[in-house]
Amino acid sequence: MQNLATPYLLFIGDAQDPLSIKMARSAADWSPEKCIGEYRLPGCTVTTGCPEMSIDEAAQQGAKSFVLGFANSGGHLDPNWLPMIQHALRAGLDVISGLHDRLTDYPELVATAAEFGRQLHDIRHPSGRLRTGKGYQREGKRLLTVGTDCSVGKMYTSLSIWRALQQRQVPSTFRATGQSGILVAGEGIAVDCVVADFIAGAVEQLAPANTAEHWDIIEGQGSLYHPAFAGVSLGLLHGAQADALIVCHALGRSSMRAIDNRPLPSLEETIALNEQMARMTNPAAKVIGVAVNTSSVSETEAQAYCAEVEQRLGLPCVDPIRHGTERLVDVLLTVA
């Protein structure tokens, strides 16, 4: 369990791409009770929906942590943010980062944190000892969300399903595998910072054997079709030993995230490849439904698209935000 002090002040800098602040948005959407406000800079055109406030205002209102709420390509810490991070430390706030660059690699941040008795949390970097995966059969049931691309809604789908299971009083746990999920859940392992040989083993540790009726809802990462992230996605598939898979897709996206002129795979291709790879460690693994981010189209168009997918694939297809995940959960609970 990560010892992350709340409430949070979400720092989103001068971001202009909604997807670039997914860490801050995730916290605001899924744990709003932990978020006191957002700190924006001139030029910022996106928002988490939280009240806008300065570092000093947030500290006066009881904020305990300054969250670097953005996720840029490569996960680098912009040197321009260092004075603001030091300001937050001097104001009495811990600092939480989900970037690949470690806060603790900056001597000036380490010195300021020590001077003011504050903590630096690099939640993307696993601190415990990991082991290699074995693929041995284990008790309990597991669902893994997979995708046609990265940033298509795997975490939101996973959390939506987990909350629906909680409402039905089905024993279940959300297993965070990325920095945004960890910020929401307070624990987890960011698998994209795990040494490649240990990814499958890390997921086995994250979602261990459990009672027969218990469901682990494992947050997916990347896509088998994305050249940058396929290795992480494959390790997740093998370590999850999932009984059920849900394919996540973003409607209207013309190219893979951060790659020009690379179309997304079809749903049929995505289902076939993910089932093939998942069955290496669980021969019974199967896709049970499709979750689509339809925010780029109208409700009428969204309904029509989901209906067409259902007819074509014979699987339930919903937008978790617009339509909820009850129909996916109905099918999930039929999995033996």
TrEMBL record:
<feature type="domain" description="D-glutamate N-acetyltransferase-like N-terminal">
    <location>
        <begin position="42"/>
        <end position="126"/>
    </location>
</feature>
<protein>
    <submittedName>
        <fullName>DUF1611 domain-containing protein</fullName>
    </submittedName>
</protein>
<dbReference type="InterPro" id="IPR035402">
    <property type="entry name" value="DgcN-like_N"/>
</dbReference>
<feature type="domain" description="D-glutamate N-acetyltransferase-like C-terminal">
    <location>
        <begin position="132"/>
        <end position="329"/>
    </location>
</feature>
<dbReference type="Pfam" id="PF17396">
    <property type="entry name" value="DUF1611_N"/>
</dbReference>
<dbReference type="Pfam" id="PF07755">
    <property type="entry name" value="DUF1611"/>
</dbReference>
<dbReference type="InterPro" id="IPR035086">
    <property type="entry name" value="DgcN-like_C"/>
</dbReference>
<dbReference type="InterPro" id="IPR011669">
    <property type="entry name" value="DgcN-like"/>
</dbReference>
<dbReference type="InterPro" id="IPR027417">
    <property type="entry name" value="P-loop_NTPase"/>
</dbReference>
